[in-house]
């Protein structure tokens, strides 16, 4: 298929581009390179442009005649979204509106959208299905929820088919360390711990040890980025085969605590580093775990890397490569 990938130079987008390229799709990446990197685009053509630039967007659609769009481009830092909400409503929600305008105008039939477990907010039941009510507790989650709604409304009014993927905690990297998470000022747990191993940080903090969990720290469902990427490729194939529109949670259906994750990073790297226990971070629910029955039964998706050690090892290997790459440039 001829596909447009917005945000294809970023962490998750670049892993999806690799798999799309390996599957023989013809790819154009549309990325403003605010957090992405040209070297991360391993297949297809890279167009450096912003989704706010509707003329540039229209020109790319006019030339590309795409059959599908995969939309990753977004800001994703929750605390930043609380401090600067309009950045999120503009870069995430309004830019999705721009993209949908181009999709409608150029009659693109298929869309895969990157959404997030943050749309659920702080659910009462920690095992989350796709029917769990959407009650985001920060502008990041709200910006994605609004985008989901616009996509659904457009699909209702036109021939557009969509797949909305709600990601849980994405981690790890390409097993050959060709690409990985290279976003500046990352805040995600496994990335932060890997930076400690590499000596980029002197130590790290555990936010809250009084949660209602087995060791008092938060439980999250960590999914390897290549298993998540596979879900995108399968979603495209499913829509193309007439499967229609869907929303899927993307996670493994099991969780690890913050302390368990840090222990695995220390064990796999053989390095110790200082860990300070501090107060809770605002807006962290005790536990978030995906019910993934739907994606398994509808798409036939199944994980290849459901092993925290594999996730952590791939993240550690990538972090070493990435730190070296930065020193050399
Ligand atoms: N966390 C932590 N220290 C860090 C980063 C994260 O204790 O330096 C905790 C965070 O409070 C949460 C879990 O790790 O309970 C996962 O956080 P992350 O930011 O990776 O993902 P989120 O679940 O917020 O999307």
From TrEMBL:
One of its GO terms (biological process) is galactose catabolic process via UDP-galactose, Leloir pathway. Its EC number is 5.1.3.2. InterPro entries: Epimerase_deHydtase, NAD(P)-bd_dom_sf, UDP_G4E. Keywords: Carbohydrate metabolism, Isomerase, NAD. It holds the Pfam family Epimerase. Its cofactor is NAD(+). Residues 3-251 form the NAD-dependent epimerase/dehydratase domain. It is an enzyme of class 5 (isomerase). The keyword NAD applies. It catalyses: UDP-alpha-D-glucose = UDP-alpha-D-galactose. GO terms for molecular function: UDP-glucose 4-epimerase activity. Belongs to the NAD(P)-dependent epimerase/dehydratase family. This is UDP-glucose 4-epimerase. The gene is galE.
């Amino acid at each position: 298929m001829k596909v447009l990938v917005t945000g294809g130079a970023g962490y998750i987008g670049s892993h999806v581009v690799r798999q799309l390229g390996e599957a023989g799709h013809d790819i154009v990446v549309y990325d403003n390179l605010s957090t992405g990197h040209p070297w991360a685009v391993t297949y297809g053509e890279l167009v450096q442009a912003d989704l706010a630039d509707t003329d540039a967007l229209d020109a790319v659609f006019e030339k590309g005649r795409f059959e599908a769009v995969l939309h990753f481009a977004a800001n994703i830092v929750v605390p930043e979204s609380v401090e600067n909400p309009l950045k999120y409503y503009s870069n995430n929600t309004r830019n999705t509106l721009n993209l949908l305008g181009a999709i409608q105008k150029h009659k693109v039939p298929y869309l895969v959208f990157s959404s997030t477990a943050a749309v659920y907010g702080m659910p009462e039941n920690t095992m989350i299905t796709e029917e769990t009510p959407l009650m985001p507790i920060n502008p990041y989650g709200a910006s994605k929820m609004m985008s989901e709604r616009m996509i659904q409304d457009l699909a209702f009014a036109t021939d557009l088919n969509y797949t909305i993927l709600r990601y849980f905690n994405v981690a790890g990297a390409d097993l050959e360390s060709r690409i990985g998470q290279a976003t500046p000022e990352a805040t995600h747990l496994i990335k932060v711990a890997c930076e400690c191993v590499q000596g980029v940080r002197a130590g790290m903090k555990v936010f809250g040890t009084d949660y209602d969990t087995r060791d008092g720290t938060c439980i999250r469902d960590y999914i390897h980025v290549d298993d998540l990427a596979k879900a995108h490729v399968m979603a495209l194939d499913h829509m193309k085969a007439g499967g229609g529109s869907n929303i899927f949670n993307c996670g493994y259906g099991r969780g690890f605590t913050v302390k368990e994750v840090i222990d695995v990073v220390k064990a796999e790297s053989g390095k110790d580093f200082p860990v300070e226990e501090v107060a809770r971070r605002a807006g962290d629910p005790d536990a978030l775990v995906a019910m993934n029955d739907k994606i398994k039964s509808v798409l036939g998706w199944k994980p290849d890397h459901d092993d925290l050690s594999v996730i952590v090892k791939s993240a550690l290997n990538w972090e070493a490569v990435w730190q070296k790459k930065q020193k050399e440039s």
